[in-house]
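Quick start: what a row looks like.
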Amino acid sequence: MPFLKQHTDQVETPNAAASNEAGSATKQEQASPEVSPAKQQRVTFLSVFLGVVASIGGFMFGYVSGQISGFFGMADFAQRFGEKNSSGEYEFGAARQGTIVGLLPVGCLLGALIAGQLADVLGRRLAISLSALWSCVGIVIEISSETVWVQFAVGRLVTGCSIGALSVVVPMYQSESSPAIIRGILVSTYQLFITLGIWTSYMVDWGTADMTSSASWRIPNGLGFLWSLILCLGILVLPESPRHAYRKGREDEARSTIARLAGVDPLHRSVHDQITEIRVKLDEEKNSGKASWFEIFTGPRMLYRTLLGVVLQAGQQLTGANFFFYYGTTVFKATGLSDSYVTQIILGTVNVATTIAGLWVVQNVGRRKALIAGAAWMMACFFIYAFVGHYALDSTNPMNTPQAGSALIVFSCLAIAAFATTWGPLVWAVVAELYPSRYRAPCMALATASNWFWNFMISFFTRFITDAIDYFYGFVFAGCCAALIVIVYFFVIETKDRSLEEIDTMYLLHVNPIKSSQWDGSKVPEGVAADSLHEEHAEA
């Protein structure tokens, strides 16, 4: 079967008797100076444009997530939606602040759960367009809020449904459409645009913070219309996912899209190989009958993969990076900084710059090595953050301990840099590659929902936790990073530069994750008997 080959140009001949000849020819082809068919594919303008336009969904995610931190420091926003304390000043209690912040990820969780079905029924492209348009409804609710904080919070809930749906469908669309040679970097562009959205929201908040009217927070909110409309209309000029098109019986469209994205002729061998891989997998799925929702747990190796995706997406939140983005302004006020908005811009700039570096990591370093190194790096930063914040910083008068305040900012930046180069972009790529097409939509929806669930837990309960244990909160994230190192080492397969169909085969064959980077798709892996291999394929 073609997807058992390590490279897409290594396709079995129909004549089984000639298999040895074909194998020899393949070896000679690899040894010759000629470029293999798969490597003749190019990085085209269309494939890059597809990745960039779809990633505006990530920009919307980052923009909405980042702007709320600055709103809490704006006078007009506090007067309208805050609570008056005994000294006559307006402030936000832990419950009210947590609800306003937390209802966004609640909406995202709901959107993520319905996005898989939406993408299968409407198609990836139209699902993205409608989800982007839906966010305008939430923005209208937020901007029209006068003095009722619940209305503003509900607006974030509605907006969240859009953001959550996009967080599932955008990486799905990118992974199904991108050529294998740049799939990782294009899917990771989604995370880059999240960071750009966060940075942009910080800049806009900083620019409007000194306004005394409601324009201080309504202008940043209103800009959300622009990003939504750009994505809503821009995605419609792009082709549908070739894998989705093929599943709907549109083979010519799928072939043409693969060729256009790879910069080759529709009759090129690499296009034929990829269509063959898709057809083989689809035929297997048809032989298995219509998929039921519970098969994401009972299908071949699906419980393993479903739970792994859920854990990895949860882990992206439990690394603690969003703690700084949601509550950074509040946290850095406690270090004695006169302008915490500037500090947020610094953190946002570090986030963007290191995510760009992270794209190099995605393209050149294996998934496993990067995830393990990133988790270890963040674990060390959070240990130092917790110890310095609790034992060295004078919380009553931070100006008495300027070195401690500086250390907190430095290690916050280092933790964000670690996240942005590893767990930020790579988790989206790894999870998008994890599932077979038969179960990809519901599995990605469930995995992304776990990301939003923990996003909500962190955004809502952080104020309560920090009020109780202050900077020792860093130990919680350090412990989570330690657990993630173990999980990645023992359970995540190396998928760099492999086709989606080949990755599926690796999981079906129980390839050892620790040795997966050396796995050769043209051979039966060590420890798997030939008869069990044939039995597994027969069941599929």
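That is the whole record. Confidence is low (pLDDT under 50) at residues 1-34, 525-540. The longest strand covers residues 83-84.
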